[in-house]
Amino acid sequence: MFSPKDILALDFDGVISDSIRECLVVAHNAFAAFARQDNRIEGFEQLDSDHVDKLRFMRNFIRSGEDYVYITFALNKGLVLQNQQEFDTFAEEYQNLREQFLDIFYKERQEFSQKKTAQWIRLNPLYEGMQEFLSAFPHKRNLYVITTKKTEFADKILKGNGVEMAFEQMLHATPDNGKDKIITMLLRKRNVAPARFYFVDDQVDTLLKVKSSGIHCILAEWGYNNPHQIELAEKNQIRKMKLHELYEYFCHLP
Questions:
Q1: Which of 89, 122, 155 is the last residue of a domain?
Q2: Does 100 share its domain with 142?
Q3: Percentage of the chain surpassing pLDDT 70?
Q4: What band does 173 get if pLDDT is binned at 50, 70 and 90?
Q5: Which of 111, 128, 172, 250 suits 137 as a labelling partner, its CA being 20 to 30 A distant?
Q6: pLDDT of 86-131, one tens digit each?
Q7: What span, in angstroms and rounded, lies between the C-alpha atoms of 250 and 240?
Q8: Among 189, 205, 240, 237, which Cα is nearest to 7's?
């Protein structure tokens, strides 16, 4: 049972924020810039609905921002990647583009968030009930965000949705400093045993990587995952929760 001395860490996209609409708009424009196509868009409604369905399906396999450009790239090639292995193989095949995709994705996001801030925030809503959860969580010092999203954007989205959180408790995961390393750092820094650390992510692949540290791993069922990934979590004894269950478990403390 979670206690006031325990630590809770949350992923951001797919756990706190339902950011897919913003990410697809940014990725579309990033790929347009990469491919030198004259088809930039201003809003989510301008995306082809059939393409959106396919991109939503592939969203379940991505881990960081530039991966949105990879699935847009795949769709541009007429491909719909069917599982994590297919996505990873495709991204590895075009590994030489990763740095370029990363740079152009964040350049587009930076410009969008600065020039059309209100519209950008509207495309990054919090999941229904998440604002209440973050407000009700009783021990704010023991609440962290660990995300591949740059923390300046996570902070801006939270503030835009009426949530204040200490910026130093938002931690940016990168390929060289992954979520597993950040969790290990926090365990050491806070002098907390792994059994007192809870981590919530919607990406089962990430949870499988950090599970060996002995922490409590929780799959966010409301996020970007599919039945196969949920089944994989169950087979690996990873607990799954719906958002209302998260609230009941972590906010109703003695």
A1: 122
A2: no
A3: 99
A4: very high
A5: 172
A6: 999 999 999 999 999 999 999 999 999 999 999 999 999 999 999 9
A7: 14
A8: 189
3-state DSSP call for residue 254?
A: coil
The total domain count for the chain is 2
Q: Are residues 134 and 225 in the same domain?
A: yes
Domain of residue 179 covers 7-18+125-251
The residue among 122, 140, 175 that closes a domain is: 122
CA-angle at 15, arms to 14 and 21, nearest 5°: 35
Residue 104 falls inside a structural domain: yes
- Does residue 1 lie in a domain region? no
Q: Sorting pLDDT into bands at 50, 70 and 90, what band is 253? A: low
88 shares a domain with 70? yes
Residues in contact with 236: Cβ distance below 8 Å, sequence separation at least 6, in sequence order: 204, 208, 211
Residue 71 corresponds to which tokens in the numbers above?
A: 């699935």
- Arithmetic mean of pLDDT over the chain: 95
Instruction: With a cut of 80, say whether residue 2 has pLDDT above it.
Output: no
* 108 and 200 inside one domain: no
Task: Tell me which residue has tokens 């204040």.
Answer: 164
DSSP for 71-124, please give it.
HHHHHHTT----SHHHHHHHHHHTGGGHHHHHHHHHHHHHHHHHHSHHHHHHTS
Cut 0.90: pTM above it: yes
Written as one letter, the residue type at 95 is Q
- The SS3 call for residue 197 is strand
Residues 230 and 219: beta-carbon distance below 8 Å: yes
What is the crossing angle of helices 20-35 and 66-76, to 10°? Answer: 60
d(CA 59, CA 70) in angstroms, rounded, equals 10
What pLDDT band is residue 254 in, cutting at 50, 70 and 90?
A: very low
